[in-house]
């Protein structure tokens, strides 16, 4: 008699992260090894996160994936690399409740189905690839009972999307570029947890939720090939900034933090302009937000808010505390009233948080 089909499922939820010292440029395209270290802050999963369910069943005859309800191809190298790396680390699974037993060697033959949802715009410069691949790797590792810790998993998530390695931790996180040719030391470490600097308030101003024209992958490839500023940045600028940023975070020095964050975002967008053909991720509304924050910070004498923009027009605004956040919202509402015809259409308010395992 044929064995009754069975299914085992795991669901995980992972927040996105926003870099305050940016990763832009790879020295190895396949392994996804960066040209510089980067530092990010992980957001609250209640606001911007990916939820991924992975299932394995004796009745599945191929690996399949649905993203935001639409089936997508898993044939790309990045998905294949993540699946292969986790499968290689799979262990025996014994689910007594469901009466399922999967031996380590069975994982080679079994297929998975993956359903993933982002609760925020996909491919619009709010790091959907970061939350997406971190969540995928984390969920697969749980499904297959892989014993690796989050740092080891970060080196696998990195092979899905570079920025994903930083979403395996909450708080402030550093992606160490590493030296090894096989990429084993290119992984994320937590600098401080989400409680360390909990007066910070992060506000995301969604300027435009449309998919960007140039993906991060293509954009940074073009920058590596054509931008001299990128070379200077990676070698001469970022190493010093990383040290200063770590110090600013440890000592909760908002003035240095804001100065470094804004300068690094501006230099990253300058690299995009220095690329041939030039890449324009920010738009007029983004520029107006920068002017508004710069003017306010100068008038106060000391920075109240830091701004940073990833590969898209949407602003990530980090306020020193709740008072500054309240004032910032008032200013944004004044400059971009809801009835105006600018394309700023929502604010998402949140603070930092840690990865939640919903499995
Ligand atoms: P973003 O700025 O949103 O990170 P990218 O261009 O870096 O934009 O990456 C977008 C790509 O990331 C998508 O086309 C898709 O391949 C992948 N991605 C986004 N969300 C997910 C998800 N939840 N699970 C797996 N991959 C995802
Ligand atoms: C501007 O991680 O999306 O957000 O590694 O090619 O998937 P791939 O690129 P991705 O690039 C992120 C670039 C950035 C800066 C950052 O997150 O550090
Ligand atoms: Co991305």
Topology diagram in text:
Elements lengths: L6 E9 L1 E5 L4 E3 L4 E2 L3 E5 L6 E9 L6 E4 L2 E3 L4 H12 L4 E3 L4 E3 L8 E8 L9 H16 L6 H8 L14 E4 L12 E5 L8 E6 L9 H11 L1 H23 L3 H20 L10 H17 L4 E5 L5 E5 L2 H14 L10 E5 L9
Parallel strand pairs: 7-11
Antiparallel strand pairs: 1-6, 2-5, 3-4, 5-12, 6-11, 7-8, 9-10, 12-13, 14-16, 14-17, 15-16
Helix pairs in contact: 1-2, 2-3, 5-6
The structure holds adenosine-5'-diphosphate, ligand DP6 and cobalt (II) ion (CO).
The site of ligand DP6 has 15 residues, from α4.
Family: Belongs to the diphosphomevalonate decarboxylase family.
GO biological process, one term: sterol biosynthetic process
Protein name: Diphosphomevalonate decarboxylase
How would you explain this protein's 3D organization?
This protein is α+β, with helices and mostly antiparallel strands and 359 residues long. It is 34% helix and 23% strand. It has 8 helices and 17 strands. It has helices at 77-88, 128-143, 150-157, 216-226, 228-250, 254-273, 284-300, 322-335, and strands at 7-15, 17-21, 26-28, 33-34, 38-42, 49-57, 64-67, 70-72, 93-95, 100-102, 111-118, 172-175, 188-192, 201-206, 305-309, 315-319, 346-350. Strands 1-6-11-7-8 form a 5-stranded mixed beta sheet, covered by helices on one side. A hairpin with a 2-residue loop joins β7 and β8. α2 packs across α3 (150-157). Residues 351-359 have low confidence and may be disordered. The site of cobalt (II) ion (CO) has 6 residues, from α2. The site of adenosine-5'-diphosphate has 22 residues, from β11 and α2.
